[in-house]
Design brief:
The chain is of the alpha+beta class. α2 (about 40-55) runs antiparallel to α3. The protein starts with a helix and ends with a strand. The radius of gyration is 18 Å and the shape is globular. The protein contains four helices and ten strands. The strands form two sheets. It has a six-stranded antiparallel beta sheet with strand order 8-7-6-5-9-10.
Length: about 220
């Protein structure tokens, strides 16, 4: 079980690092393996301390991950802890790490205004290829998170955009999301990209849109 967890978390880190390499604005994060030894816990807390010293008001979040012992697949129903102060981070991390692998991030959920998943699908025709894009997302005045996606936006590179009650401001953001996903599709096909658009600078590049992850879709 532990060996599988190490493998899966390593792959997740590599995926995020690949997004960064491709110019995506990824979150400020630190990974802690399940039941991590003391030195790894201490290194993660040193990272958090640097973030805290740069901005004492910055809160932290912990996404947790568990893996099915038989299929080695990652669970999507594990806890997502938010709004953790630096003072409480050590206690919270040590306790939750007993059960899960953890990704600590230094982004502010309240600043999320739009969030969701984007998928690019390539359709082959008799003469040419056409790309379809599908975005599941949510739009909120506060704390938009990927898991709360309740709206839909889609279209093709040859047709019109289709979105229920989508306003021009949202279309602008969604268009940027889709265009980045299309660029990524040239390198990686059959993947879903997770993103959040913040009202304040976020991520390692301090830009509005943060890209959390990419994963295969079935």
């Amino acid at each position: 079980m532990k060996k599988a967890t190490v493998k899966e978390v390593k792959e997740k880190i590599e995926r995020i690092m690949e997004l960064e390499k491709r110019g995506f604005n990824v979150p400020r994060f630190c990974f802690v393996i399940h039941q991590a030894p003391e030195d790894i816990i201490n290194k993660s807390l040193e990272w958090a301390k640097e973030v805290h010293e740069q901005n004492p008001e910055q809160i932290f979040n912990i996404r947790t991950y568990a893996y099915n012992e038989e299929s080695k697949n990652e669970s999507i129903s594990t806890p997502h802890l938010t709004d953790i102060t630096f003072e409480l981070l050590k206690f919270t991390l040590i306790n939750i790490n007993k059960e899960f692998s953890c990704m600590i991030d230094a982004e502010t959920p309240d600043n999320g205004r739009m969030a969701g998943n984007v998928t690019i699908i390539e359709k082959k025709g008799f003469i040419s290829r056409n790309l379809e894009f599908h975005v599941d997302y949510c739009s909120k005045e506060k704390r938009a998170m990927v898991r709360d996606a309740d709206r839909y936006f889609s279209g093709t590179t040859r047709g019109k955009l289709i979105g229920k009650d989508t306003n021009p401001k949202e279309v602008k953001i969604l268009t940027e999301v889709v265009n980045r996903a299309i660029d990524f599709h040239k390198i990686k096909k059959n993947f879903i990209l997770e993103w959040t658009c913040f009202c304040k600078p976020a991520g390692i590049k301090r830009e509005p849109i943060v890209w959390w992850e990419y994963r295969k879709y079935e």
